[in-house]
Amino acid sequence: xxxxxxxxxxxxxxxxxxxxxxxxxxxxxxxxxxxxxxxxxxxxxxxxxxxxxxxxxxxxxxxxxxxxxxxxxxxxxxxxxxxxxxxxxxxxxxxxxxxxxxxxxxxxxxxxxxxxxxxxxxxxxxxxxxxxxxxxxxxxxxxxxxxxxxxxxxxxxxxxxxxxxxxxxxxxxxxxxxxxxxxxxxxxxxxxxxxxxxxxxxxxxxxxxxxxxxxxxxxxxxxxxxxxxxxxxxxxxxxxxxxxxxxxxxxxxxxxxxxxxxxxxxxxxxxxxxxxxxxxxxxxxxxxxx
Length: 290
Fold this sequence. Notes:
By secondary structure, the chain is mostly beta strands.
């Protein structure tokens, strides 16, 4: 038997009951192998909003966004600091970790795709939250973007028996088979249209670039105030524009790139001096202008 996974309020696991899960009398079967190497993408045709939802979730998986218990449950959707999870023998202090838990990931992905925020609710309140915000109940996950809900856990269906999820502090955000979770889902929900135009956080295409040093993020490219940090490593950017001249480690640049930082802030700016591939007072190749 599988041990219970965290967490009580948002992402509690359930024991494996067999090789497949029954949803509305329809079996959802597949290999129980981890499929950690499976690409995070939509496998099959789906609606435009559902496709964007999958893309948004997979962007967080591919970026390596951390799991944070209660992350994504602030007033605004998106990665945020979490809370303490203390159910012996497990203990995790996520108060200073910016990330997402399972329902926080689904909330953020749908908001990015549709412009609709169904709120910082736990999986136990998903039925009313989703059906009152454009989702419809379906018998089984058959299209990419379908949201699968278990007792204490939720994930986004990718197709081919795979799902994107925020599994836990140890496993992080990943791609697994639906069957790997086990148990009986309490419902499956298909996303609707949301608002006509998604809000700025979706930002268009995301271009991944290497950030060679942890960078401060500011709220405006012209004399902006520092609001957070962007960790070094591979990070995505939406676009770039000119602003105030900034110097760091012997480099100087007046180009700024829009991104979502690792402090939970959306649509903030990082100076090009922190991004690999640039030159003094020059644009970062491959990133469109805003």
